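Researcher: Structure prediction, please.
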Amino acid sequence: MTASITRLTAAALPAHRDELAALLVDVVAGGSSLGFLAGLGHEEAAAWWDSLLPAVEEGSLALWASRGPDGRLDGTVSWSRESKPNGRHRAELRKLMVHPAARGRGTGRALLAEAERGAALAGVLLLFLDTETGSGAERVYRSAGWTEAGTIPDYAADPAGRLHPTTLFYKHPGRPA
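Model: Predicted structure follows.
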């Protein structure tokens, strides 16, 4: 089980840059479809994390990181609030990732629960996400009470560049499943 989950602030994000980049590189190398292709380098991953800083600063992106019993960063999750006036009640769950060596220990489920709690506290009424159909992440969302909204064929490429369908899910945080 995860030793601790912390919400990362804009002030804390730069201090964790290299650890976050290493996690992203390892998760993509492990085959997870997170929007990146195989061969993702540390600097490219670090630059991606850097690009999130303005959204974390303004509060439109909420980000959590988990550390395993050994103290190493082993997972993250975030949600991004919609900026359009008619959609400010909703947020997209993004980048639930767990290091391959930490899978099967409840880390993903714990991160997901923390993000859902944070969304409910922030007044988010609807969370939505997309995930590779048939993936381990899809099983996590189903078991956590998320509702399938549909599947889109050939939605995204996995790290090897092969197209896969994605399943869309939604959940009302704070409501019983």
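Model: The chain has a mean pLDDT of 94.
Researcher: Thanks, that helps.
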